[in-house]
Amino acid sequence: METFKVAVLEEERKIGYHEVEKKQPKDKQVLIKVDSCAICTLEQRVYLGVMNRYPFAGGHEAAGVVEAVGKKVAGVKPGDKVAVRLLNSCGECYYCRNGHENQCVKSFIAETQECAMGPGGLSEYMMVSADDVYKVADDADLSHISITEPLACCVHSIENGKIELGNDVVVIGIGIMGALHIQLAKLKGARVIACELDEKRLEVAKKMGADILINSGKVDAVEEVKKLTDGRGADAVFCTVPVAALADQAVQMTGKLGRTVFYTSFHPDKPIEISPNKVHSSEQIITGTVNPSKKDFLAATRLLSAKIVDVSELISDRMSLDDLEAAFEKAILPDTYRIVVQPE
Which residues are CB-neighbours of 32 under 8 A, at least 6 positions away? Predict the structure, then answer.
């Protein structure tokens, strides 16, 4: 019997490896040899014990090569490079059927691997449904393609921000999500203002294409944005930092008819004050964004395949699946962007 290795988070800061039988795909199944899987915040929270989901086969930002396909698969063939959509949706609830599968009431209930629940990308192989497999360019760097899911999340966010040509757009926080927002906002034709405390991250913002850099620790970011926009405020503001005080700043620096997008979840979830009259009179829109739709995921694969979006600066290191504990310890450092785990 041929087997493959699956990494499983068994308890706080404890990783085990399971040997799973390597089977042949049936009907609409696709067997994928994993090339790269990035470590996301979700997996970091399970690793640190913030989220108790043990045992958990983590890894939902994965890319690889098709090894075999079931007899009813038509979209991909052995040898194709692919991205895999692993944060699934049920397809049956009201939101899935209404075209908003990112709001699925049963999402994230993944059982990709037989040994434990979870998306299962931190492994040597995955068996997945053909519906969740997206072909990418033959010359694509699969470590870059592993960033498809976070990019897709940002695509969804940018669409919610409804950026128009020539808009003034503010991105608060230049972690990987803020950096991706900058590139996408530039593609929409915006002037991008990056707000960040860390000078190194401001340099990353510049590399991503930001037009103006604001060190929020040295100046009042709200007043600075208003000065830059002749007192109007920004047309769209994306808050990518999980701090309620910055959500408040995002609302304040948004101008008339502007869109304020809360990209991140907030921890702790502290309420902020919002003037109903300001929202009423300015027609400001305050919204959130969560998870990508299938359309967003497809757009992300095309952006990466065509090298329209460059994520090379956002991969801090590539590490072995056999050295996963060290990879997690590096991933949780505050100056790390993405750590990509590779089985070989």
Answer: 62, 64, 65, 66, 67, 82, 84, 125, 126, 127, 128, 133
Helix (H) or strand (E) holding 281: helix 276-282
Structural domain count of the chain: 2
Query: If you average pLDDT over every residue of the chain, what do you get?
Result: 96
CB-side exposure of 235: number of CA atoms within 13 Å? 16
Same domain, 27 and 129: yes
Question: DSSP letter at 65?
Answer: E
pLDDT tens track for 9-20: 999 999 999 999
Q: What global pTM score does this model have?
A: 0.96
Model pLDDT, residue 111: 84
Closest by CA to 152, choosing from 87, 92, 224, is 87
CATH number at residue 219: 3.40.50.720
Residue whose entry in the numeric block shows the structure tokens 């608060």: 172
